[in-house]
Structures are given as C-alpha cells and as structure tokens.
Structures
1.
Amino acid sequence: MIDRLAKYNRFKAQMKSGDCLLWQSRSIIGWLIRKFTSAKVNHAGLVIRPPEYGHFKDRRFTVEALEQGIQLRLLSERLREFKGRVWWYPLRDEYEECRDKIAEWALEQEGTPYDYHSLFANIAGRVSADTKRFFCSEFCFMGWKEAGIPVFRCIKQAPRPGDIPKFRIFKTPILIF
C-alpha cells in the first residue's frame, strides 16, 4: 500500500506556526475558484505547531476558514481525507519572531464565521479584508498582518489563494501531498 502521507511526513518536522498551506482540490468548487482567479490553487490555511513538549510536540495542525467558520484540525487527518495537492510555503527566517503572534491570533479566531459574501464578491472584483468573517486567503493574510509581516506592501485588499505565492515572505514552496 502506498503511504499517501509520505511526502508530508518527510517535511512535517520543519513545519512551523505561521507557514502557509496552499491547496488544489479536485472538487467542482475548487475548479471554479481556480477558473475565476486563473490560479493553480483554490484554498489556503495556516500551519500551527504546538510548543515542543507533551503529547502534541510531534503534531502539526492547520487552522483554516472552512464552511463552518475558522477551524483547527490535525493536519495529517485533513490530508488523509483530501483529494488534490497541497504545497507548504515556509515563512522566511526573518519572520521567525512573528510565529507565536500568528498562532495566537489565528487560534483566537476559531469559530469566526465563514465570509460567503466576500467569497462570491471576489468573482466580480477585489474585496476589502475585514475581521468579522473570513474566507481562506483573507484569514491567512490577516494573521500575517496582525503579526507585523509587511503583506500590505504586496496587496491592499484581501488576497485570493493564488495571490499568496506572490508575497515575498516565503522560502521555496514544497509539494507535500
């Protein structure tokens, strides 16, 4: 049997809070998002790595804006059920001190509703980022912004998932799934 998580398992020890995950699903909605945004990805999430002790020291989580709102999920479980591809975008070393702030902010948002209105408005044009509701890439963007990473130099409005690779805050991306 092929280990579907082999690539992820090779890199998970290097994954840290605040890193980005960009997802390319095989779903109809994923295809539509990619078609309307001319991008290879249709979803974004953040990596959360608990402190280096206890039961969670070797675990990686993802916090994402999903249909039910902002959710924290075990990354390996999320990958097991996923149909598509996932790239890991590690933050550059100069943002190391921002990681705890990103994780703290992201976890405080858990349960915030999904921003369906902005998701659909994004088809017609760009929308402003706001913190009352989130769609996936808006959530990641606001987490980096709140931690002091200069993402507003890249874009003034809420980014689409395909905009994230243009930010100059990452090391080379790695296909993990």
Note: Residues 136-146 form the longest helix (11 residues).
2.
Amino acid sequence: MAARSNFHRMVVDDPAALASAAAERLMARIDANPGRIAICLTGGSSPKQLYRLLSTDRWADRIPWGRVHWFIGDERFVPVDDPLNNMTMARNIFLDALAPADNIHPIPTDTSDPDESALRYERELQAWYGASKLDPDRSLFDLVLMGVGPDGHTASLVPNDAVLQDTDRDVAVTGVYMGRQRMTLTYPVINRARQILWVVTGAEKVKALSQLQKGDTSIPGGGISRDQALILADQAAAGAGDPTSTA
C-alpha cells in the first residue's frame, strides 16, 4: 500500500529526555483547555517513565487534577489485578495516588466477555461526551498517547485484524493477539483527538518507527491521522546517530 505524508518527529537522547518532552506536551494540552480535560493513556513499556515523572511533585503540582479525566486507549481482557492490565499499570504508578477516583476511566474487564467490556466502555465514553453517538466533527480527547510495537501495532489496532476496518464502533474487540483478546478504541475516535502524541523507545522499534514516520499504511499505525500528531522517539528507536527533529 502507498505511504502517506510524514509525521512531525522529535528525537531526544534517551527515555528520560523523552519522558520530559512528553510531559511538557501533555501539560500544554491541559493548559490549553480551561474546562474539563480528557487524556487518553497508553499501555506498554514506553510510557512508564512518563507516568513516573507525572507522579513527582514538579509535575503533579502543575496538573489541575479535579479537571482532568484519564482514559485508556486499549486493554487486554484480563482481570484488574493482572500485571498485563494497562490501566492498572498507570493507576499503580501515579493515578491512584493523585487523581480523583471518579476521574479515572478504565475499560471494565469484570464482564462475561470482551464484547460486553467494549460496549460498556463505549457507553461510558458517550455518557462523558454527552451524546449517544460521537460526533465525527468534534474531538473527544484533548490528548491521546500512543505507542507502537515492533510489528507496527498501536493501541490494540493489530495487523490483519478485522478491527482495522471497523468505522461503526467507538470501541471494538480484536481477535486473539499475543494470547489475549483485547478491547481498543477505533481509528475514528483516535483520529478526532486534538493532539496525538506517540512515545516510542527502544532499538526493537527502529523498523516500525521508520514505517510510521513515512506514513506506511501497511502497518496499523499508518491509519492514524498525521495532521495533529507528533512522534517523540529516543535515539535507540530512531537509530544511532539520528538527531532529526521535524517538529
């Protein structure tokens, strides 16, 4: 499939610098909205240092916790106490200690099946948004954090899955991927965010990051909008000796 136009990209030295750059951009989105704020988090290894940074006084003191609501872009169908649960990871690192409980919006996994989980989360998004169907011309999220896997998957938009073609649901269910079914936001919801921020670390992401930067639509990450997106990558993910910034 043909590639589309490039993302803006900023390459920094290491994961610590990446976390600081991501925190600055997250705060910029928060500061831009004087009302109720919706931040969509991501799982995986890349954002952990960012979440640890947000728990420190320097950053926590800047966040208007009462106005910020925290969502998650995807979840494995595992119990809330499972180490693979994405929102539990974020809660353990910073949310439970700092955010009001009513402002944390996990994908429920205490259900009979992942379809019920997806439907319940879709209804929660719609209730928070104030409409029974999300408006294609209105943003739900102020910021969506994204990661990318070595195979180009992002959120749980995974290679060769029917979920990539789903434009009717706001939250959809994947087939079994890496041993688990998953619930994920779909392209239309993600692509209506005011800002999409990719956080990419690690040498195993070099190929996927290159494909993503080129807008390669043969990988799931290639379906994410370029207009409001920025890639933040460390040197390991970008490839040695690449200080390129196109942001």
Note: The chain has one domain: 8-238.
3.
Amino acid sequence: MRLRVAFLGLGVVIAGVGIALFLTQFLIKTPPAVTASATSNSTNGLPVVNVTLTTVAAAGTGPHPNWVAYLNDSGDPSTYINAPANSVIHMTINQQDTPTGLRNEYFGLVRGTIDGSMKVNGKTMQAIDPTTAAHTFTIPDLGVSVPLLGVSADQKGNPPQNVVEFDFKVPGPGLYRWQCFVPCGAGTLYGNGGPMQTLGYMAGELVVS
C-alpha cells in the first residue's frame, strides 16, 4: 500500500513538472522583441526608424530549432516589433531561405510601402515572380505586403542572401498582426501549420506606442 502511494505521489510530481515546463516553454514564453532604432531622417515630416530581421530555413535554437523563422540581430527567433506611433519604418530583411512559391499570385506584388516599391540587393522592384518567393512580410490591417525573393541554388555569398529594403508608415498606437503568406510550414497540412501559426517564427505582432 505504501509503495502504491509512493508511486502515485511520484506520478503527481512528474505530471506537475511536465505541466509547468509546458506552460513556461510554450504557452507563456514570449520571444524577445525587436525595438525600432531611431534615426535622424524623416519622410514627409515623419520620423524614420530602423528595423532589421533575417529569415532562415531553420531557426537553429529555441523549442523548434528546425522550424523556418524570422531572427533578430542576436540570432533568436523573434517576430515582435516595437515602434513609435506616427513614424516610418525602414525595414531591412536579410532573406537567406530558398523559394517555396506562392499559391496566391497577389502576394507577389509589393503593396502598402512608400512609393509602392522595395529594393532587392539595391535594385528597385514592384513585384517578383510568385514562384521565386521564399516568404512575405504582410500586415493585413495596414495594407502592407512585401514578397521576399528566395535565394537561388547557385547564389554566391556567405551565407547567400537577398537584402530586401522597404519603407512603410506606422499609424497611431495599436497592435497589428503580421505574418508570412508563403506556405512554408513543411510537414504540416498544406504547409500552413507549425511556424506559420506560431508567434516568433512566421507570425508576429507590431506593437505601436
């Protein structure tokens, strides 16, 4: 009888530890935020701030090291962005992943940026071939969507990457959800699960204050 009680108690302890780890590592844990850095520049009278992210085929760290992810300057998966209200974000994305392609060709167009364009490795572009997209940076509530050109198999560099730059206006305070619209969740239903649905990987939040 005492042995049964001991095993029962041990089981309760193990279950409690497991639940605590699940809560702290998956449900409660929040990826680090990327805070826009101030500059001395202005656009149409609005201050310009800088945000830099990197897209990779595998996060390499965190609870899902094999998931595709956006990374911050420290190399950690991060899709939380803090920016000041009524500003212009100059976004730089170092795109290091290969193409997956878009199911909806609409997302091959640049939308919602200042001048309706982006720069890819210094070249101004308004769209890319939908089959060459690796990811998108899309904020539906702000009408912003930028396709990220995938790295080709023979592309040079260490690591090979396409540097994508664009500017967009940030309105008043609020919380704006953003995500990738390329089905890049390998191994999930239609590629739309896993990292596609998880904050810190291919889904994020723009916090404007």
Note: DSSP finds one helix and 13 strands in the chain.
